[in-house]
Each structure stands twice: as C-alpha cells, then as structure tokens.
What does this fold into?
Amino acid sequence: MILADILQWFLLIVGAMSTLVAHWLVAHALFPELVARARERYVRQALRVTLVGLALAVPILLVAIAIAKKLPHPLPQSIAVGLVLITAALALIGSAGLVERIGLGLPAPLDTAQPWRRILRGGVALAFAFLMPFLGWFVLLPWTLVSGLGAWVLAGRAPREALAKAALDERARP
It folds into this structure.
C-alpha cells in the first residue's frame, strides 16, 4: 500500500464522518422540534425506537433490492436508489435525536447560548465511535440509522405537550 492509497482512505473516512455530523447539524437547524421529540424517544423508549425502525427499514430495503434486481431498466433502478436515499435521509434526521442526547451527556458552559454545540459534540463522539473496527462499522452505524428511522417515525407522532415538557426539563438542568 502506497502513501496515496493511505491518504485516499483517510480522506474518505474523514469526509464521511464530516458529512454525518453536517447532516445532524442541518437536521437540528431545520427541524429542532422533531429532533427534540426524537431525543425524548431515545431517552424513554430506545428499544421501541429500534424495533419500529427495523420494522420499516427491512421491508424498504427488500423492496428496493427486488426492484433493482427484477427490473434491469435504469428508471426502476433509480427509483430503488432514491427510495434507499430518502430512507437514509429520514434516518439521519431521526438519529439527530440520539446525537443530541449524547451531546447533553457532554455538557459545556456555552450550551444555553449555542445549543447547536451539543449536536456537534455528540455527533463527533458518535462518528468517532463508528471508527471502531467491525463493532462500529457493522453494529453501531446500522443500529444508529435503523433506530434513527424509528425515532423519526415516533417523533412525528409525539404530542406537542411532550415537547413542552421536554423543554422545561432541559431548562431545569444545571
């Protein structure tokens, strides 16, 4: 392996980690209420979030694979890829709740003035956890995406009163 190969893999990994953190920051910026509800779902119902995400992700992936294999035309294959990409985007929005939960566990004095820093800290910590060989790649990353999809679905169904209570609980923290 030459230096160019090593540099290529290093930059691909850094780029992927940066992209994940950027998606979580954008999700928090565009959908702060949804991310807050997803965070509460992770705190209270982590197993349910994972099971709902699994119940949605498996059929979607099976349908996308079936479409791509059975119909060799580029249009159905593009639809299958689009289905997977949309599912992944929704999973990243939901997993921003997990990232915010991790960031809340790593408090800093500037959090009240700049709440996006929680997402940044939690996202960097989670992205570094993905680097662990095998466990990070094949267990933690897929679990984060699957549970993120479940968190997105369940957070969309959460009542607004739960969000108000979560906001009050967050302000009451030292």
